[in-house]
Amino acid sequence: MSLHTLLQGRQVVAIVDNQFGDSGKGKFSDLLAKEWADITARGTGGDNAGHTVDIKGKKRIFHILPVGIAYDNQGKNTLLGQGMVIAPQPLCTELDMLKAEGLSYNNLLVSSQAHMILPFHVEMDSGDKSAKNGGIGTTGKGIGPAYGDRTLRIGVRMKDGLDIDVFARKVTALRNKRYPNSSFSVDDVVQSLEPYLNRIRPFVVDTEKYIKNFLAEGKRVCIEGAQGLMLSIDYGTYPYVTSSDCSIHGTAAGVGLSSSEVDLTIGIIKFPYMTRVGGGPFPTEMGGTRSEKHCNGEDTVEAATARDELTMFSIPFTEEGKKVHYDTHHPRIMELMNSDNEFERGVGIRLAGDEYGATTQRCRRVGWTDGVIQQYARRINGKHVLAITKSDVLEGVKNFKICQSYENADDKACGFNKDEEFLRQVQPNYSASYGPIEGVAHSRDESAHSPGFKKAINDFEKLTNTPIAIISTGSEQQDVIFR
Ligand code: IMP
Ligand code: MG
Fold first, then answer.
1. pLDDT tens, 120-132?
2. Count of CB atoms within 10 A of residue 298's CB?
3. SS3 (DSSP) at 334
């Protein structure tokens, strides 16, 4: 199959993550923006997200704009929907990055109804950055407080930034009511944001109207979800979630559509391992609570970094600012990935897959792909197809396993129960071991894949009643197989 056969006859396609985020939505969003879509839209979250974009051979991290912005010069639109919370300065930083590369953003549309992240929000959120002591471990970008003010009906919207007097009035009301002790005065906020608001002003429109018109004109829309279903405020592992609904429902609503208007949903999952950043239950985590404490830190112990892990296992690296560089194919990393010790396997996979947060550089916790979570995703996100990613990271690994059910799950129809009490104590039942993983990295054809890997994929489709339509076999755009 090809991308075009998969998308034949569709007008609205959504890309969502069925796990805890970071599954590689950006790659598919890029592919669709380049090959298929007229409009790439985002409807939830803010600069808590992060994806690495390849601009003219250089890797750049974007937090707010979808990758589709790179095709602006082809007349394609990029839309930031009303469900988002947008920080003006970081948005301008991304516009500057585009400008520096000679790229345009003339067709950017920013919802007038999207809420604005203000310095008050960031100040309030940064106190909760750490996942130590069982905290949520937010990205510290002000996401929760901004959505909180939206829910309290006192938030400041992008449209309020169109007129500086209106903006000052709204900021005053918000500060008085919610942040009287903030270290930022109203003047601080208004004066520091004014230049950014001036820059964004030409792009602020009623995006709902635009999207309805685009659809009427027969244009094709790709909606890019943010974070993942397990981090959804409505369907995720509350309270260890973000503050928006990352399911197909919130993703569509965030751009002014209903999930029933989405013609095809592509659920992205990592397979056969998955990751979680920050606090919260993670039944299939390799190394269990040891891994959780290692990645998030404890009372007296700081959270581990890539540098700490490389040092711990004597793997050579070089440093460039906060970023470390090392050989992801180092023999010691392969040894760790094949270790009998689950904690070590987790470290090995994290190093091989470069599983450190794009936004925060934090260690992502590593666990086996959870079929129960995918069964739940099938129920919430409805009928969809899957794209699996990161299997190539495990190239050369002798064996692996998949979580098939939970021991003593209380709900027979769907073994998943999002309550922390349940997920903290549940015992995953694993498949017999599969393996090895060979012939996957950079493959363009499934016939190269080892039988152990093929069997795992076929079994997973049956287990979850969801077809795997796409296999990503590497980080490059051409490393992809349509089935
Ligand atoms: P917040 O979205 O910054 O409020 O963070 C809430 C929780 O969601 C924390 O556990 C974060 O680590 C997690 N989170 C937020 N954005 C992402 C993301 O893009 N990828 C993975 N985890 C995320
Ligand atoms: Mg991401």
1. 999 999 876 777 7
2. 12
3. helix
Residues 229, 247: Cα–Cα separation, whole Å: 5
Question: pTM for the complete prediction?
Answer: 0.96
4 as an active site residue: the answer is no
Q: Residue 205: phi, psi to the nearest 5? A: -145, 175
- State the DSSP code for 309: H
Nearest CA to ligand 1 atom 10: 278
For ligand 1, whether the C-beta of 275 sits within 6 Å is: no
In tens, the pLDDT along 70-105 reads 999 999 999 999 999 999 999 999 999 999 999 999
Does residue 21 have its Cβ closer than 6 Å to ligand 1? yes
> Distance, CA 424 to ligand 1 centroid (Å)?
19
Condensed to tens digits (0 to 9), the pLDDT of residues 194-209 reads 999 999 999 999 999 9
Q: Is the pLDDT of residue 66 over 80?
A: yes
| Nearest CA-CA partner of 118 in 154, 81, 165 | 154
DSSP, residue by residue, 429-474 = EEPSPB----S-TT-SSGGGS-HHHHHHHHHHHHHHT--EEEEE-S
CB 49 less than 6 A from any atom of ligand 1: yes
Measure Cα distances from 249 to 33, 380, 427 in Å: 21, 9, 30
Catalytic site includes residue 51: yes
